Amino acid sequence: MTLPPEVVLDLLPLYLADEVNPTTRKLVEDYLSQDPLLAERVRQMRVAPPPLPAPPPDLGLLALRRTRKLLARQRWVMGFALMFTGFAASFQFSAGGGRGVHVHWLMATHPAAAAACAAVAAALWVTFGWQRRRLAV
């Protein structure tokens, strides 16, 4: 049985990808034995890049562990961000001397410490937002 050249050309991608059944493989190889020009082109096309390495068998478990670690880190960053935000916006209540309760905003009495806490809190909130965006993808 002779095959038209168009049929062989249509089958070549599957033949080169090794996705044809043995009967079709034999038909294509018989045709290539009769057409040396096309056979040479097929030999040139067979040079393929090396196959990709197989993924490790525990890839899913590794991804789960990494995600859990990132979520734990995100919780810690949020906790510290809340803590330093609270430090920067904290008040001091004092009662005594018959004057009643006196409220001091610590930013007024210790501006350098409160500013440092506010800067750390801002950096932690930016980090938290970055981590949240990264985990949302």
Could you give the order of the helices and strands? HHHHEEHH
Largest sheet data = 2 strands, antiparallel
Q: How many individual β-strands?
A: 2
The SS-based structural class is mainly alpha
Q: What average pLDDT do the residues reach? A: 86
Distance between the termini: 56 Å
Overall spatial form: rod-shaped
Integer-rounded radius of gyration = 35 Å
Into which percent range does the helicity of residues fall?
55-70%
Side by side, the strands of the main sheet go 1-2
Low-confidence blocks of residues: none
Beta content comes to: 5-15%
Q: How many separate helices?
A: 6
How would you characterize this protein structure?
- By secondary structure, this protein is mainly alpha-helical.
- It contains 6 helices and 2 strands; from the N terminus they run ααααββαα.
- It has helices at residues 5-16, 22-34, 36-45, 59-88, 106-109, 111-136, and strands spanning 91-95, 101-105.
- A two-stranded antiparallel ribbon has the order 1-2.
- A hairpin with a 5-residue loop joins strand 1 and strand 2 (101-105).
- It starts with a helix and ends with a helix.
